[in-house]
Amino acid sequence: MTEVVSSANPGLSQPLLAKRTSKRWMISALITTAIVALPVFSVLYLALFPDENIWPHLMETTLPRYLTTTIKLMIGVGILTLIIGLSTAWAVTMCEFPGRKFFEWALLLPFAVPAYVIAYVYTSLLDYAGPVQKALREWFGWQNAADYWFPEIRSLEGAVLMIGLVLYPYVYLLGRAAFMEQSPSLFAVSRSLGHSAISTFFRVVLPIARPAIAVGLSLVLMETLNDFGTVDFFAVQTLTLGLFDTWMNLGNLGGAAQIATTMLMFVVILVTLERYSRRRQQQFAARDNRDPIHRFTMSFPRQMICLAVCAVPLVFGFIIPGATLGYYAWEYFDESWNPNFIRNTFNSLFLSGTAALTTLLIGVTLAYSRRLHNTRGMQVLMRLSSLGYAMPGAVLAVGVIIPLAGFDNWFDGLMRDYFGFSTGLLLSGTAFALVFAYTVRFLAVSAGSVESALQKITPSMDMASRSLGHTPGKTLVKVHLPMLRGTLVTAALVVFVDCMKELPATLILRPFNYETLATYVYQFASDEQLYHSALPSLIIVLAGIIPIILMSRSISNSRTMT
CDD domains, alphabetically (predicted)? Predict the structure, then answer.
């Protein structure tokens, strides 16, 4: 009975351990959190005390348009991802149809395609000079655009479609996991009362899965707010585009910080609404939530409907973009494979690998400190350290450049006064700024994964290690890390792929004449040279497939299905 109670509480609060636990872990966590949270407070400070206050000018001119467009984009993407994510999750979880096992993992593949890449691909295919409209003009004898109507891909609606096609896996992933955790007896009772599969979904399944779906939708909306490549290419004037314009074109960092603060308010509102929507909900695991779930048997027409529901987002979200990129990469391989491509690939691998290792080290430090000192203060530190994940990349870039540039200027002035030489840029404008930004943004991924895995390790393991004379550090190295090997590898892969795809922060913080694969693709696409951006885009997509397969397997193995 004692061990059961201890396992429910991951903190080691026993008197013996409390006396012997080193305070160095708490101090390390405090210092790390202060550094990681610095960009957030820097943005808020500069927004409140800018060198030149252009907030009234922004309010009178561009800000209302930025706000309106951003809200429309988020609503459109949210509705689209909910429709695709929930319908596909329900189909592969509860319905038996041809190809179901394939779609279980394949529906996650669009997650590997950055939104700006899919936007470039479909613009190349659907634009006036693209192959689709050319074929239509040849088939029907049309001479110019005035002879027919064709939807404009470079529009707000086009941006909604592009972003939604690659972000629905958030809702699909969490929705499917929630459906698989539910009790089979609920379905049986609902069906015995005469409810159809659709009625059971809306009356029973959806209300229970709402917390997980709300989390997935919140992630979708935050990623939508973070998008820059798609909205820039489609000329959709969102807050992110306004931040870039205010900083890069107007040269006003304070105004950019004020727009960044507005974006942070969006994030706070999203998180608050998500938590408020489930404030009165309490859910507990049912005793039979590990029993096999019997899928619905359906007629052939309904099986084809499920097949179409799953095939459409996969075809348009991954197969068509992937095939197009593969074709262009093959056709223009000799031109694309050049020293610039090799150098930029190395830059991406180096930055992403370094950031993945850094986030793992910091994540383990924070999560293990929380395990040793399970206090309210440590809970606050964990939440503060995760703020970066909720920050759009452009906002994070503003928060990073402020303290780093301030330090560089202070240190350079110090060296000039006392030693008569200039040190230049030591932190800002270097690869360090990019690694720091990546670490702050994706630390929540590694820290959250490690913390969740540590909670599953019984405290008796720590007590046994401490009774043998091991310090907390040796206990971590010899006991916990070997047990966390799978979690650490998965977390590192996810962070690595996220860093490979990150565009807004990289565009702002990268050193002069320093490109990654993401910025390399962006530069070519901005010059309407998709053919030359195909190979680097394909590398980014391929890098994201491995963690997607791992995530799908972990979910599939969590529940027996029949």
Answer: TM_PBP2 (cd06261)
